[in-house]
Design goal:
heterodimer, A: Lambda Exonuclease, Chain A, 2 domains, four-stranded antiparallel β-sheet, 11 helices, about 35% helix, about 15% strand, B: Methyl-coenzyme M Reductase, Chain B, domain 2, Alpha-Beta Plaits, two-stranded antiparallel sheet, 18 helices
Chain lengths: ~290, ~450
C-alpha cells in the first residue's frame, strides 16, 4: 500500500497544482511608452500643485458636496423653462444632408450636437479671496474633462459655451462638486463684476445684481435670481458656504499664509524653460534641438 | 537633410517614401500649378456689373447692403448678361498678345461660367511675368472690360459723356479717391489688389477661410491641404521659410497639412471619443515612441522632486511638426464633438498650453505663436469684441496672420465640421466659390493631387 502510495506521489506533478501565473505578452512598443511616459498634468510639490493636478486629471473623481436637482440647474441657467423642449439651431445630424467627408464619421458628436441644440453659455466668477477654483485653471480643466467646449478666459470670470444639453450636464458637475463654493464662486451671465472686491458682511462675493443671499437660519446660500438676474419664482438653495479650513484645503493659489513663494520653485522653473525655449526656437528652430 | 514621409489620404491611400522637399511650393508641380492659376486668373461677376448700371449703384456700399448709394439719375439700361458672349470675345482680343512672338506665351482666355453670369479671365503668362505685382488681375481685366462695353453698347464721348465715366465707376467704384476699389467692384480674384496688401509677401494668403472651405467642398483634409498650400506659398514669398526655417516650415506643412505618417488621422482615431487633453497626451506618447522626445537623465533637475519629468527633443523642427499636427487633431476632436466651429480658437490656445506643460516645458507649437494668435483669435471672434465668425477671416488678417501658417488650416478644418451654427457660413459668404468649385477641376482633391505630384518628383532629391 505504502509503496503504491509513494509511486502515486512520484507520478503526481506538483507544478500542475500550483496557481498558474498569467504570462503577460507585452509588445516591445508598449514597454517603451509605458515605462517612460506617464501622463503628467502639472509640476510642483505641495498641496496647491497637488490640487491643480487633481482638477486637471480626468481620471480623478471630484468630491460631490451637494445635490442640485436638474430643474434647479435649468432655472439657474435661465435658457429654457424646466420641462420644455430643447430648441434646435439645425436639424438633427442623422437627418442632415452633408457633403462627403470621412472625418465627420470618425469623431463622435456629443448628444447635444447630435440633436442640433442651440449653443448656450454658462459663466462663472471666482472671487479673489481664496476661492476653490480660478479662471485660468477652469479653461485647462474644461478641455481635459469636457468634449466640444468653447471657452474664453478673462481675469475674474470664465465663460463656457456648449450645446444646450451638454451645458446642463457640465454645469451640474461644476456646481455640485468641490469646485463650487456658494460664497466665493458664482454663476453670473451679466454684471459679472465682483471678483476683486471685498467680501460683504456675510462673507459672500459682492454682486451688484444681488443674485444670492445668505439664509441666516439655515446658513445656506440661496439664489433668488437666475444667471441673467431675472427673479426666480422660488429661491434655490445651493448649500452652505465653505468654512475657512475647507477653503484652505481646496485652495488652488499660492499664498503667503498657506503655500509660500518658495514652494513653487518647480513651476517657475518650468515657466522659465518654456519661455527660454520659445525665444531660442523662434530665433533659430535648429538651435532648439536638445535644449 | 533627408526627411522621408509617407502621405496618407483621408480614405487610407498611401504614397510612400516622399522627401519633404517635394512639398515645397517651389518644387511641387501641383502647388506650382495652383500658384500660377491664382496669379493669372481674375473673375468678373456680370450679374453684379449689370446691377451697378441698371440700379445706379456707383458709390460705396456697406457689407450689409443697407445704406448703399443708388443714383437713379445715372441709370444705364445696358443688358450686360445678354451681351456676355460678345464681351468675352472682345476682351480676349484686347488682352491677348501676338502669338507669333515669345513662343506663344501671349495667349489669353476669357470663359463664360455659371450660365453666362461670370467671366473667368486668364491673363497671358507674359503679362504676368513682366508685371511687378498682382495689379494686372484688376487693371488689365478692368480696362479691357470697360473698352469692350464701350464698343458693344456704342457709348460715345460726344453723345453720352456721363455714360463714359459711369463705365469706369461701375467697375472700379470711387477709386482712386478711395484706396480700395469700390465695394460693388465686379472683379475679384484669389488675391487682393496690390494696394490692399496686408504686409509684404502676404498676397497669397488673402483668401477668406470660408472661400477655401467652399473650394474644398467641406471636405476636412482637402480644406486643410488647400489652406496649407496658400499659407506656405505666402511664407515662402515673405522670406519666413528661408535657410534656417525651411525645414521647419516644410515639416510642419507636411505633418499638419498633408497627414504625413498618418499622424493627424491616428490622433483623431485614437481620441474619437476623447478630449483635447487626451490629444495632448497622445502626441507626447507618439513622439516618445518615435524616439523624438527623451529624458536626458533620471536625476534632478531632469526629473523634479515631485516626479515631474522634463523631456528634451532630438529634433526641434520635427517636434514642432508633431505639435502642430496635434493642434489640428485637437481642433478636429473638439469641433467634431460639438459640431460648432466657434470653439476652434479656444481649443488651439489651451492645447498649446497643455502641451507645453505636459511635455515638461518644451516650447509650444510654432514657438508660442500659435497660442498667442489663437488667444487673440478667440477674443475677436467672441462676445462684445466679436465681429465675424472664425471662417469670415482672411488668412492675412491682422488677427490670424501671426503664425508660420499653422493656424488657418485648423480653422478651415473647423469650418468644414460645422453643422450649421454659423451666421458667416461658407454658403453665405462664399456662394460664388461654391459654384466655381464645379467649374475648376484643379481644386478638386488637393490633398491627393499634391501627394501624387510630390511622388512624381521624389527621385530628383
Amino acid at each position: 500500500m505504502v509503496e503504491e502510495f509513494d509511486e502515486f506521489e512520484e507520478e503526481l506533478d506538483l507544478s500542475k497544482l500550483k496557481r498558474k501565473k498569467k504570462k503577460e505578452v507585452v509588445k516591445e512598443e508598449e514597454i517603451i511608452t509605458k515605462t517612460i511616459y506617464e501622463k503628467q498634468y502639472y509640476p510642483g510639490m505641495g498641496k496647491v500643485s497637488e490640487r491643480r493636478r487633481k482638477i486637471l486629471n480626468p481620471e480623478k473623481r471630484l468630491l460631490k458636496l451637494r445635490d442640485l436637482p436638474d430643474d434647479a440647474i435649468v432655472l439657474l441657467l435661465g435658457h429654457r423653462l424646466p420641462g420644455s423642449l430643447y430648441r434646435s439651431i439645425h436639424p438633427p445630424l442623422d437627418e442632415l444632408i452633408e457633403e462627403y467627408d470621412p472625418i465627420k464619421n470618425i469623431v463622435k458628436p456629443t448628444s447635444g450636437a447630435r440633436a442640433g441644440d442651440r449653443i448656450r453659455f454658462v459663466q462663472f466668477t471666482d472671487s479673489f479671496w481664496r476661492p476653490p477654483f480660478a479662471p485660468w485653471l477652469r479653461a485647462r480643466m474644461y478641455f481635459t474633462r469636457f468634449r466640444g467646449v468653447d471657452t474664453v478666459i478673462y481675469s475674474g470670470r470664465e465663460i463656457m459655451e456648449l450645446r444646450e444639453r451638454d451645458l446642463e450636464t457640465a454645469t451640474k458637475m461644476l456646481m455640485e462638486t468641490e469646485l463650487f463654493d456658494p460664497a466665493r464662486t458664482a454663476i453670473r451671465g451679466i454684471t459679472v463684476h465682483g471678483s476683486s472686491l471685498r467680501l460683504d458682511e456675510d462673507g459672500l462675493m459682492f454682486d451688484a445684481r444681488r443674485r444670492y443671499v445668505l439664509n441666516k437660519e439655515t446658513n445656506e446660500v440661496v439664489y433668488i435670481k437666475n444667471m441673467h438676474a431675472q427673479i426666480l419664482d422660488k429661491p434655490i438653495s445651493v448649500g452652505r458656504p465653505f468654512t475657512e479650513d475647507e477653503l484652505r484645503e481646496f485652495d488652488v493659489t499660492y499664498r503667503w499664509d498657506t503655500e509660500m513663494y518658495k514652494s513653487r520653485t518647480e513651476i517657475l522653473m518650468i515657466i522659465n524653460r518654456i519661455q527660454k525655449g520659445r525665444a531660442i526656437a523662434g530665433w533659430n528652430p535648429e538651435a532648439a534641438t536638445d535644449i | 537633410m533627408k526627411d522621408m514621409v509617407d502621405i496618407y489620404t483621408d480614405e487610407g491611400d498611401v504614397y510612400k517614401n516622399i522627401p519633404v522637399q517635394a512639398f515645397s511650393p517651389l518644387y511641387n508641380p501641383y502647388i506650382t500649378k495652383i500658384i500660377r492659376f491664382i496669379k493669372r486668373t481674375a473673375f468678373v461677376s456680370l450679374e453684379q456689373l449689370q446691377q451697378n448700371y441698371q440700379r445706379g449703384r456707383y458709390g460705396e456700399m456697406t457689407a450689409l447692403r443697407k445704406d448703399e448709394i443708388q443714383m437713379e439719375q445715372y441709370i444705364r439700361k445696358w443688358n450686360i448678361l445678354k451681351a456676355a458672349p460678345e464681351i468675352a470675345a472682345r476682351m480676349q482680343e484686347i488682352i491677348a498678345l501676338n502669338p507669333k512672338l515669345n513662343d506663344g506665351d501671349g495667349a489669353a482666355e476669357v470663359k463664360l461660367l455659371m450660365d453666362g453670369k461670370l467671366l473667368m479671365v486668364t491673363l497671358p503668362d507674359r503679362r504676368i511675368d513682366l508685371a511687378a505685382s498682382s495689379a494686372p488681375l484688376f487693371t488689365i481685366t478692368g480696362v479691357a472690360l470697360a473698352q469692350a462695353i464701350t464698343e458693344i453698347f456704342d457709348v460715345h464721348i460726344e453723345k453720352d459723356p456721363d455714360g463714359c465715366t459711369l463705365i469706369k465707376t461701375g467697375i472700379f467704384g470711387r477709386f482712386p479717391q478711395t484706396r480700395e476699389f469700390g465695394s460693388n467692384c465686379p472683379i475679384f480674384a484669389f488675391m487682393r489688389p496690390p494696394q490692399m496688401e496686408e504686409g509684404i509677401g502676404s498676397l497669397f494668403r488673402s483668401m477668406m477661410i470660408n472661400h477655401v472651405v467652399a473650394l474644398a467642398k467641406y471636405r476636412t483634409f482637402d480644406a486643410v491641404a488647400l489652406a496649407t498650400i496658400l499659407e506656405q506659398a505666402g511664407q515662402f514669398e515673405m522670406g519666413n521659410a528661408l535657410g534656417w526655417f525651411e525645414r521647419y516650415h516644410l515639416l510642419g506643412m507636411v505633418y499638419q497639412g498633408f497627414n504625413a505618417n498618418n499622424l493627424v488621422m491616428d490622433l483623431i482615431q485614437e481620441n474619437a471619443e476623447g478630449t483635447v487633453g487626451d490629444v495632448v497626451h497622445s502626441v507626447i506618447k507618439r513622439a516618445i515612441k518615435d524616439g523624438l522626445l527623451y529624458l536626458k537623465s533620471d536625476k534632478y533637475p531632469i526629473v523634479q522632486p515631485s516626479g515631474y519629468r522634463m523631456y528634451s527633443t532630438r529634433d526641434y523642427p520635427l517636434w514642432n511638426a508633431y505639435s502642430v499636427a496635434g493642434a489640428l487633431a485637437a481642433a478636429i476632436v473638439n469641433i467634431g464633438a460639438s459640431r460648432a466651429c466657434q470653439g476652434v480658437s479656444a481649443a488651439l490656445s489651451i492645447y498649446s498650453d497643455l502641451l507645453s506643460i505636459a511635455s515638461g516645458g518644451l516650447p509650444d507649437p510654432d514657438a508660442g505663436r500659435l497660442m498667442g494668435t489663437a488667444l487673440g483669435f478667440s477674443f475677436y471672434t467672441h462676445s462684445i469684441y466679436g465681429g465675424a465668425g472664425p471662417g469670415a477671416f482672411t488668412m492675412d488678417h491682422v488677427i490670424t496672420r501671426h503664425t508660420s501658417g499653422f493656424l488657418t488650416p485648423c480653422v478651415a478644418a473647423a469650418m468644414c465640421l460645422d453643422a450649421g451654427t454659423q451666421i458667416f457660413a461658407p454658403k453665405v459668404t462664399s456662394g460664388n466659390y461654391l459654384k466655381l468649385r464645379k467649374e475648376l477641376p484643379l481644386f478638386a482633391e488637393p490633398h491627393r493631387k499634391a501627394a501624387e505630384a510630390a511622388l512624381s518628383i521624389k527621385d530628383k532629391f
